[in-house]
Design brief:
Elements: E1 6-10, H1 15-26, E2 30-35, H2 39-47, E3 52-56, H3 62-75, E4 81-84, H4 99-127, E5 130-135, H5 139-142, H6 149-169, E6 174-181, H7 187-190, H8 195-204, H9 213-224, E7 235-238
Parallel strand pairs: 1-2, 1-4, 2-3, 4-5, 5-6, 6-7
The structure holds nicotinamide-adenine-dinucleotide.
Length: 245
C-alpha cells in the first residue's frame, strides 16, 4: 500500500472546498482545512473520514501563507497535495472595476496560489512526489459571462501559473494542473442570479443542469491520485459542454 498523503485545501469553509476535502478524505487522504473563516472548519473536520487539521489565515498575505505552511509541516506533517481553491467573485466589467477591487481580486485569487506553491513545493520536490491543483474557471476561457474583468483575469493567470510551474517541475514527480468549472451549484452562483437568470443559464448549458459540488470534488481526487502522475499542465474543463476545445 502506498503511504498516506496529506492535502492542504484552501477555501474549505466554502461549498467546493468542503466538497473537495470530503472527497479527498473518502480516498484516504489526511486533510488540512484552511479558510479565512475559522468557524465552519471544526465541524467539517469532525465529519471527515480521515484525520484532519484546521488552520485559519488570509491567503492573500504572503507572510501568513509562509507561517501557515511552516506550522502545518511542524504540527501535522508535510503537504503532498495543494488545492488552491479559495477565491472571491467580482462581477464588475472593465470600466466599473476600481484599482482597489482589481488588486484585492488578484491578491486573493492569484497571489495566494503563488505564495502557497512557493511554500509547499520544496518539500514536494524533496520527496519526489506532489500534486498542485489550481481552481481556475470557465471565465478564463470565455471572458466571463456574468463574471467581471478582474475575476476573469485572475482565473486566466491561474492557468498560466499552472503551465509555468508544470513545465518547471515536470521532472520532479510533482504534477500541476488546473480545473476550469462553470456553474457549480453553490451560493457563489445561485445568489448572484435572479430566478429568471438561473432558468436562462440552465437552458444555455448543453447538459441542462448545474455541476454538483461532488462532481468537482471527484476531479480534484482524480488529479490528486497516484495514477494521475502522467497528467501535468492540463486544464480540465468542467463546464457541461459550454465549450469544446
Ligand atoms: N461556484 C462556481 O460555479 C465556480 C465556477 C468556477 C470557479 N469557481 C471557483 O471555485 C472556488 C470555490 O468557489 P465556491 O463557489 O466554493 O466559493 P465559496 O465562496 O463558497 O468559497 C470560497 C471560500 O474562500 C474563502 N476565502 C475568501 N477569501 C479568502 C482569503 N483571503 N483567505 C482565505 N480564504 C478565503 C471564503 O471564506 C470561502 O469559504 C473559487 O476559487 C471560485 O472562483 C467557482
Amino acid at each position: 500500500m502506498s503511504e498516506q498523503k496529506t492535502a492542504l485545501v484552501t477555501g474549505a469553509a466554502g461549498t467546493m472546498g468542503a466538497a473537495a476535502a470530503r472527497g479527498l478524505a473518502e480516498n484516504g487522504v489526511r486533510v488540512v482545512l484552511s479558510d479565512i473563516k475559522p468557524e465552519p472548519l471544526e465541524a467539517l473536520a469532525s465529519e471527515l473520514a480521515t484525520e484532519a487539521y484546521t488552520i485559519a489565515f488570509d491567503i492573500s498575505d504572503e507572510e501568513a501563507c509562509r507561517q501557515a505552511v511552516g506550522r502545518i509541516e511542524q504540527e501535522f506533517g508535510n503537504i503532498d497535495i495543494l488545492v488552491n481553491n479559495a477565491g472571491i467573485l467580482s462581477n464588475n466589467k472593465l470600466m466599473s472595476t476600481t484599482a482597489e477591487e482589481w488588486r484585492r481580486v488578484l491578491a486573493v485569487n492569484l497571489d495566494s496560489a503563488f505564495y502557497l506553491t512557493q511554500a509547499c513545493l520544496p518539500q514536494m520536490k524533496a520527496k519526489g512526489w506532489g500534486r498542485i491543483i489550481n481552481v481556475s474557471s470557465f471565465a478564463a476561457k470565455c471572458g466571463g459571462i456574468t463574471a467581471g474583468t478582474a475575476y476573469s483575469v485572475s482565473k486566466g493567470a491561474m492557468i498560466a501559473l499552472t503551465f509555468s510551474v508544470a513545465a518547471e517541475t515536470a521532472d520532479s514527480g510533482v504534477t500541476v494542473n488546473a480545473i476550469a468549472p462553470a456553474y457549480v451549484r453553490t451560493p457563489m452562483v445561485e445568489e448572484q442570479l435572479t430566478e429568471e437568470q438561473r432558468t436562462a443559464v440552465v437552458q444555455k448549458i448543453p447538459v441542462k443542469r448545474y455541476c454538483e459540488p461532488d462532481e468537482f470534488a471527484h476531479v480534484v481526487s482524480f488529479l490528486a491520485s497516484p495514477k494521475a502522475g502522467f497528467i501535468t499542465g492540463e486544464v480540465i474543463d468542467l463546464n457541461g459542454g459550454l465549450q469544446f476545445d
